[in-house]
TrEMBL record:
<dbReference type="InterPro" id="IPR016167">
    <property type="entry name" value="FAD-bd_PCMH_sub1"/>
</dbReference>
<dbReference type="InterPro" id="IPR016166">
    <property type="entry name" value="FAD-bd_PCMH"/>
</dbReference>
<dbReference type="InterPro" id="IPR036318">
    <property type="entry name" value="FAD-bd_PCMH-like_sf"/>
</dbReference>
<keyword id="KW-0274">FAD</keyword>
<dbReference type="InterPro" id="IPR012951">
    <property type="entry name" value="BBE"/>
</dbReference>
<feature type="domain" description="FAD-binding PCMH-type">
    <location>
        <begin position="73"/>
        <end position="248"/>
    </location>
</feature>
<dbReference type="Pfam" id="PF08031">
    <property type="entry name" value="BBE"/>
</dbReference>
<dbReference type="InterPro" id="IPR006094">
    <property type="entry name" value="Oxid_FAD_bind_N"/>
</dbReference>
<comment type="similarity">
    <text>Belongs to the oxygen-dependent FAD-linked oxidoreductase family.</text>
</comment>
<feature type="signal peptide">
    <location>
        <begin position="1"/>
        <end position="16"/>
    </location>
</feature>
<keyword id="KW-0325">Glycoprotein</keyword>
<keyword id="KW-1015">Disulfide bond</keyword>
<keyword id="KW-0285">Flavoprotein</keyword>
<dbReference type="InterPro" id="IPR016169">
    <property type="entry name" value="FAD-bd_PCMH_sub2"/>
</dbReference>
<dbReference type="GO" id="GO:0071949">
    <property type="term" value="F:FAD binding"/>
</dbReference>
<dbReference type="Pfam" id="PF01565">
    <property type="entry name" value="FAD_binding_4"/>
</dbReference>
<protein>
    <recommendedName>
        <fullName>FAD-binding PCMH-type domain-containing protein</fullName>
    </recommendedName>
</protein>
Amino acid sequence: MLSLVIALLFFSFSNATMDPDSVYQSFLQCLPSESPDSAEDLSELIYSPTVNSSSYTAVLQAYIKNQRFNNTATPKPSVIITPTTESQVQAAVLCATKLGVQIKIRSGGHDYEGISYTSSDPDFIILDMFNFRQIDVNIADETAVVGAGALLGELYYRIYEKSKVHGFPAGVCPTVGAGGHISGAGYGTLLRKYGLTVDHVIDARIVDAKGQVLDRKSMGEDLFWAICGGGGGSFGVILSYTVKLVPVPEVNTVFRLKRMVAEKAPELVHKWQMVMPNIDHDLYIRILLQPVTVNKEKTGRATFIAHFLGDSDRLVALMNENFPELGLRKEDCFEVSYIQSILFWDNLDYNTTAPEILLDRHSDTVKFGKRKSDYVQTPIAESGMKLIFNKLAELGKISLVFNSYGGIMNEIPADSTPFPHRAGNIFKIQYSVNWNDADPELETKYLNQSLVLHDFMTPYVSKNPRGAYLNYRDLDIGVMTGDNYCEGEVYGLMYFMGNFERLVKVKTAVDPDNLFRNEQSIPTLAGKNSGESRKTMM
């Protein structure tokens, strides 16, 4: 009888936009049929805007990390499901399939375009994985099992609890969710020494479109490869990753040096790009290029931020030999532990801030923002650097972040993971603009600045195709409606280059009905036929 009710509901839903209350009631009926848990227990995991609206709003907003997608016009899910067990995730996937609703999967909410909790599809639910935040660190075999809903700060702290000489090569923002970060090939200050997050994943657990829980052995190497850099949201629900930890020294050194255009910032940035690809792998230097006003005059500033796996004496000697123009002195350097370096990179006072702050899941300030990305493969001339600083000053708000490559990234094949941007890339660019005011005119202004600057940078960045970084999600470069290969190929080639076709084949094999989809997911081969048909009709 229950299956008949669900079938009738699906028939009616497939012919009309769903009423949120009906979706809620349908999940209440369906979940117990697919889960060993009681209906009463399962009901506590489901939030609806019509039934428990205050709790629904609190849960929805708890992990919205971009205020651009937190207003009355933002599309809202029909329900939010917050599973605590693997069987509940399985049940949610099976019921979403039966009811014909789109699943959006959220681990930490840092997706820059909000596609883990908004949708262009009128009927969608959020599967919010924040309860899957268990972290099991095993120093004896140098591994950690990391729940998809764990945050990077929690991972760093749990490693620190067990060892002061182990780390993991992931991002510098502690409130980023591990599931999305790892599946999209996250990186951090250990990039040049150890590569990306996905270069150290040795196992994973995932719920696929059939509701099966799979590990690396049972899912097979193709699917395992795909979820290690291809984004988990196209292939299933990531439950956890097992990662290999890396050694870090007891003494690390950090510095932050600022140089104005009048202090030869363009020349220094030019030299940085020449030095970093082949310098000691223990050194990582990021540069922030920002517009500033000095004496009422618009100009530019470069901030060099470094993490060195070693003491300050060795770092200063290294810099004097390879990059003396920067003028690094020993007094500019701060010797810190590895956990203190994480606090430093999060702009915290590592002397007065206890590492326990990394356990605070909401320690960040949520602003309005926009990100874009690029890769540079040919050194930019000094004249070009000067023009870039001039453009930043002209625009007045948006900034650029240059992230050094080289090191071990030059040694890892481009097809070892879906992330292809390895050898041949000198540095990665992040376009970054944040603001605090909800004024729509400001949003229009700053989003336009990102477009203008991205267009301005065209002569300096990679081409055919122009590269982009999945974890700096950017819907400006293309979106896919439904399952359309031609649309998906546009952004797919930018994110994945020559690995895109293999991702399509994996997607087709494991999720042929395209249950796991979003505005920039991987299309199926069936979508290729669909896209070509549409193109012919047009």
